[in-house]
């Protein structure tokens, strides 16, 4: 507290011969409003925590216990192929096979507060995969009541705007894995998608003041799309059992694939904050500056990886170092991921 001190008498030791008039106290000036606390600008997870969990994650994904600081020939070819894609006018979105052309249009419609349920239903009805997902979700609300939903329009009304946003986006991005795919697609694609869904759940849960929950959900779901696209390149370039996964390769792969994610987000007209947050995930430097959504996405990515590594028995969630120093909301978010995994 600021205290205002003022001397009312020049010298208290001097005798006063005349009574002094009362002196009105001088009011203390109002304290200046406190400056708002500066918002954190670096990752909410320590560099050491990220390094540990990312190391365990990559060892599991690429089945390699050792790192390595020199690129193999196959890794060089993969990175050069990715650089060629990012550096040309080739459509990044065109590399995402599953994404139907109508989905960006649907998502733009859902961003409006006055969207038309009937018009949306007609659009959804043109994609059998979306129809099945929408009706299945709506019927899950009536499970055990003996009632069922058979109309897309009924389902749209029941699910509501926010539910449709998340459902359509999830179905649109979910990869279709060809059983004839190469080694890396078969090995990694499903794991990467499972992690994306956990990131989306975590990001939506963590979204607070100033961050739109659906934007956070989009960022989480798009987190690995560039890496999923790169799996086909890995399959093509890693010949005759060549292995991928050195430390230097993974660091460069992170930058390239997150850049591709951001490019795809812009092409689909997602908010600039989403594209920026995705791009920031490729910066692995200690103390790198991040946007609010970028910080949120970093935490969601971390919690999603921890949850999956726990499910695989590769880390012990009782280890206090996993969660030391994380924001208070991380505990509730991790609990939601645990509950979702049990469903």
UniProtKB/TrEMBL annotation:
<dbReference type="InterPro" id="IPR013976">
    <property type="entry name" value="HDOD"/>
</dbReference>
<dbReference type="Pfam" id="PF08668">
    <property type="entry name" value="HDOD"/>
</dbReference>
<protein>
    <submittedName>
        <fullName>HDOD domain-containing protein</fullName>
    </submittedName>
</protein>
<feature type="compositionally biased region" description="Pro residues">
    <location>
        <begin position="22"/>
        <end position="41"/>
    </location>
</feature>
<feature type="domain" description="HDOD">
    <location>
        <begin position="96"/>
        <end position="284"/>
    </location>
</feature>
<dbReference type="InterPro" id="IPR052340">
    <property type="entry name" value="RNase_Y/CdgJ"/>
</dbReference>
<feature type="region of interest" description="Disordered">
    <location>
        <begin position="13"/>
        <end position="42"/>
    </location>
</feature>
């Amino acid at each position: 507290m600021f205290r205002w001190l003022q001397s009312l008498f020049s010298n208290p030791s001097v005798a006063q011969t005349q009574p002094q008039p009362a002196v009105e106290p001088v009011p203390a000036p109002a304290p200046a409003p406190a400056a708002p606390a500066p918002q954190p600008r670096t990752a909410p997870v320590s560099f050491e925590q990220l390094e540990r969990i990312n190391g365990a994650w990559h060892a599991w994904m690429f089945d390699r216990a050792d790192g390595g600081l020199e690129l193999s020939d196959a890794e060089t070819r993969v990175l050069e192929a990715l650089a060629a894609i990012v550096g040309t006018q080739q459509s990044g979105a065109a590399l995402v096979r599953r994404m139907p052309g109508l989905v960006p249009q649907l998502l733009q419609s859902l961003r409006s507060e006055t969207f038309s349920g009937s018009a949306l239903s007609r659009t959804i009805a043109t994609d059998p995969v979306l129809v099945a997902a929408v009706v299945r979700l709506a019927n899950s609300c009536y499970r055990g009541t003996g009632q069922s939903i058979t109309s897309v329009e009924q389902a749209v009304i029941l699910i509501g705007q926010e539910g449709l946003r998340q459902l359509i986006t999830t179905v649109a991005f979910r990869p279709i894995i060809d059983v004839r795919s190469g080694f890396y697609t078969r090995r990694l694609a499903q794991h990467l998608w499972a992690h994306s869904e956990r990131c989306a759940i975590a990001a939506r849960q963590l979204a607070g003041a100033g961050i739109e929950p659906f934007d956070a959900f989009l960022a989480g779901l798009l987190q690995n799309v560039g890496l999923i696209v790169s799996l086909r390149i890995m399959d093509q370039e890693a010949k005759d059992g060549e292995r991928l996964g050195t430390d230097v390769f993974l660091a460069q792969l992170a930058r390239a694939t997150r850049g591709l994610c951001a490019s795809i987000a812009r092409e689909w007209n997602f908010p600039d904050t989403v594209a920026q947050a995705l791009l920031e995930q490729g910066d692995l430097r200690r103390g790198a500056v991040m946007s609010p959504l970028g910080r949120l996405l970093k935490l969601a990515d971390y919690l999603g990886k921890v949850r999956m590594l726990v499910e695989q028995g590769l880390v012990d969630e009782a280890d206090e170092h996993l969660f030391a120093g994380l924001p208070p909301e991380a505990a509730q978010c991790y609990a939601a991921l645990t509950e979702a995994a049990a469903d």
